[in-house]
Amino acid sequence: MKVSVAVNGRCEELDVAPATLLVTLLRETLGLTGTHVGCDTSQCGACTVHLNGRAVKSCTMLAVQADGADIQTIEGLSDGATLHPVQEAFRNCHALQCGFCTPGMIMRVVDLIGQHDTLDRQTVRAELEGNLCRCTGYHNIVDAVLEAHAAVHG
Amino acid sequence: MAEATARADTAALDGGIGAPVRRREDQRFISGTGTYTDDLNQPGQLYACFLRSPYARARIGAIDLSEALAMPGVIAAFTGQDTAADGLGDLPCGWLVKQKDGSDMVSAPHPPLAVTQTNYVGEPYGLVIAETAEQAQLAAEAVLADFDELDAVVDPAAATGSDQIHEGVPGNLAYDWELGDAAATDAAMAQAAHVTRMTLHNNRLIPNALEPRAAIGSFDPGTGDYTLYTTSQNPHLERLVLSAFVQVAPEHKLRVVAPDVGGGFGSKIFIYAEETAVIWAAGKLKRPVKWTASRSESFLADAHGRDHVTTAELALDDRGRFTALRVRTTANLGAYLSTFGSSVPTYLYGTLLAGQYRTPNIHVAVEGVYTNTSPVDAYRGAGRPEATYVVERIVDQAARELGEDPAALRRLNMIRPQDFPYDTPVALTYDIGDYEASLNRALDAIDYPGFAGRQSEARERGCRRGIGLACYIEACGLAPSKLATALGAGVGLYESGEVRVNPTGSVTVFTGSHSHGQGHETTFAQVVAAQLGIPMDVVEVVHGDTGRVEFGLGTYGSRSLAVGGSALVKATDKVIAKAQLIAAHLLEVDAEQLDFADGEFRVRDSNQAISFGDVAFAAYVPSNYPDDLEPGLSEKAFYDPENFTYPA
Asked: What is the sign, positive or negative, of the torsion defined by CA atoms of B589, B593, B596, B600?
């Protein structure tokens, strides 16, 4: 089936099998391996990308459902050498260890920061319930979210 | 918090070890440019899908692969019969536990792919290989296998009285092991003013690293070289076992690479069936073969943790002093002995039953049993948390039974600073500690004296509030080889390090430790840079590749910095010693006249000095060297700890 998507600002016309998942299209067809598969059941959020500006789990969506959409992955988040404030905050707050959950976590956080004018720790934790991190215990991730929120909202 | 966490990218020279720096590996992880095993692909790559037992225990009947083999894209299908016929060896358990009576533990054969019988749900008995992952999966579903289901043994407490799982293992007993003085413990129990008794189950769990296990095996028919990219915490051990025991390929023709690894928690220490079958199949088919576990497969086929059923008795005298601890544990080892599964409920468990206390008499007996469940092996702390769970639960219960404050009862019995080094009754010598200081700090942090008030306030609101204390101690820095090998370990537990100074003065550090989240690329660079007095930026750390690193035992048991870091310090010392000889030659003085500090060799009581960088360059441009001075500046070291470290 034909799928037309814009991925990180670049238009792609692709022919995919009907059962192809969006994450498979990103990782296998386009080679964008920054988006990870941790559970293949929508639990862990490692596969989170943006679909028309909102965070979605790309392991739970067919590629054909993304037809016509604007998709952003972790690879498209930085503007050249300049990191996105969320990336900067994750690095600064030691909000990652093995790094496997990190791309999905960051994409989720970019979305949630955009959705909230103000944020507190409890809200951050509730908003991150769909993204699992096995290493950090989340404390530093919450720190990073608040630091990034402050940087974005001033 | 946020505003206080701005950190420098590199340690200031005078900051050195311990100065807060940003992790250098984070740049790739936050930008999606890390390289995990499943991110890799090779030309001509095929995909494997494993055939897994739907039964906990079943005899394997006829396996009809014909329909699967006829499906689109399918290249091959293999079963345990094929791997056995090809001479593929069993997966060994690397730690031989001696039983009470002095005999060896009973190790049931563990073929990588089940041949005649499956013994846990998810046990692989074959694999299908196709051009795409989807084709392999569809074909695997088309395999018709007959199973004769048998009664399964799943309850460890009942295992010794249940059907025998393995031929040659009566009572499903892998070992009956003990540690400590049984008679002295019995005698102290008999004289006790009070004995607290309890039974507890430390439940089984699944490690669940966020990155599922994955492997890509390849074979180069031109050179006969095998390469296995895999999610491993210890690639050299994987190479050793696959060559020496499983005999996939000779050690010098097999390279194992563990690139970025998304967490381990113990589960990626072990040598598993899937990685083994993938590299074997790549050799048979002469094409790369890739496998990536689904989360469901991780649940079934990663080694699990814990699963102890324990009865414990703590004896106290009339002043509340512990006089004896008796522990009886049945440890569920699962269907087969995993790579280090035998050592976890014995040497890593029984030895920690003293906890932080001066209990003079301790005896522990452990029955390790086979059941029809996934194999159990090291998980986060491995045996030591299980020991702490027993000790701290029973101490708390004793305090409740005696109406004592649980903190006060602990303080009364703790090993005191003046008692170190302290020989426990269960084989360890604790080096140093101040346990009461740690407890007091924790109690201050939670306003322990204010708890009663918080509890009654909660009760007024209709809520219940409780409090529990636990004082943890761990034997870290696995492990002194002398001790480990004397206790049955099949490998030494030293670590290797190599410090290679390049002609331009930059340094490439090779470590046998493996980072899967620990940040070694930063930490080890900081250690070596500080020692050499050079900027961190010019120190690169290489790990996780048997083709680049000489040897290593990998990362588990909180050993990387204590053991691997010490190897690097030792290697760096050798580099400095060699550089000093070169500096002495260049400055035309005796080496004894030189001091090394802040990255330069300085002649004592003189203005003469030469930088480490200049010495490095001169090491590779040996001008007029004396006969006994070799060119080059690269040193390696193996470090074997004398004791564990004991954080508490």
From this structure: negative
Sequence-ordered list of residues with C-beta below 8 angstroms from that of A131, at least 6 positions apart, any chain: A44, A45, A46, A48, A101, A104, A105, A108
A-proximal residues of B, 234-273, CB under 8 Å:
260-263, 265
Model pLDDT, residue B1: 32
Joined together, the tokens standing for residue B222 give 């031109």
Q: Are B172 and B334 in contact (CB under 8 A)?
A: no
pLDDT tens-digit map of B132-154: 999 999 999 999 999 999 999 99
- Overall average pLDDT of the B258-277 stretch: 98
In this complex, which of B28, B36, B519 lies closest to A100 when CB atoms are compared? B36
- Indicate yes or no: CB of A36 within 8 angstroms of CB of B262: yes
Spell out the residues 6+ positions from residue B278 whose beta carbon is closer than 8 angstroms to its own: B48, B215, B216, B217, B228, B289, B290, B291
| Mean pLDDT of the region A67-79 | 95
Compute the average pLDDT of residues B216-233: 98
Q: Could you tell me whether strands B609-611 and B600-603 are parallel, antiparallel, or unpaired per DSSP bridges?
A: antiparallel
pLDDT of residue A79: 78
On chain B, the residues whose CB falls within 8 A of the CB of A87 are 30-31
Considering Cα of B318, then B320, then B325, then B331, what sign does the dihedral take? positive
Distance (Å, whole) CA B76 – CA B285: 8
Q: What pLDDT was estimated at residue B491?
A: 86
Nearest CA in chain A to B261: A98
Instruction: Report yes or no: B307 at the A interface, CB cutoff 8 Å.
Output: no
- Closest CA–CA distance from residue B476 to any residue of chain A (Å): 19
- ipTM metric: 0.97
Assess whether the previous peptide bond of B421 is cis (omega < 30° from 0).
Answer: yes
Per-residue HEC secondary structure of A92-152 comes to HCCCCCCCCCHHHHHHHHHHHHHHCCCCCHHHHHHHCCCCCCCCCCCHHHHHHHHHHHHHH
Buried b / exposed e over B362-396, threshold 16 CB at 10 Å, is: bbbbbbbbbbbbbbbbbbebbbbbbbbbbbbbbbb
Q: Tell me the residues of chain A between 7 and 66 that have a Cβ less than 8 Å away from chain B.
A: 17, 19, 27, 32-41, 43-44, 46
- CB-side exposure of B17: number of CA atoms within 13 Å? 9
C-beta separation of B90 from B159 below 8 A = no
* Cα distance between residue B226 and residue B220, in whole Å: 6
Those residues whose C-beta lies under 8 Å from the C-beta of residue A129, and which sit 6 or more positions away, are none
What is the pLDDT averaged over residues B291-296? Answer: 97
Q: What is the mean pLDDT of residues B346-358?
A: 97
H/E element, B230: strand B225-230
Quick one: how far is CA B38 from the chain centroid?
Answer: 22
- Per-residue pLDDT at A91: 96
Characterize the bridge pairing of strands B194-202 and B609-611: unpaired
- In 3-state terms, chain A is what percent helix, strand and coil (to 5)? 40, 20, 40
CA distance B231 to chain A (A): 12
Query: What pLDDT is stored for residue B15 in this prediction?
Result: 54
Tell me the HSE value of B49 on the side-chain side, using a 13 A CA sphere.
22
Do A90 and A146 meet the contact criterion of CB atoms below 8 Å apart?
no
Edge-to-edge strand list for the sheet holding B507-511: B539-542, B507-511, B495-501, B634-639
Please give the average per-residue pLDDT across B538-566, as a whole number. 96
Per-residue pLDDT for A39 more than 70? yes
**Structure tokens that stand for B15 in this block:** 């900051």
Q: Which two tokens stand for residue B405?
A: 């404050």
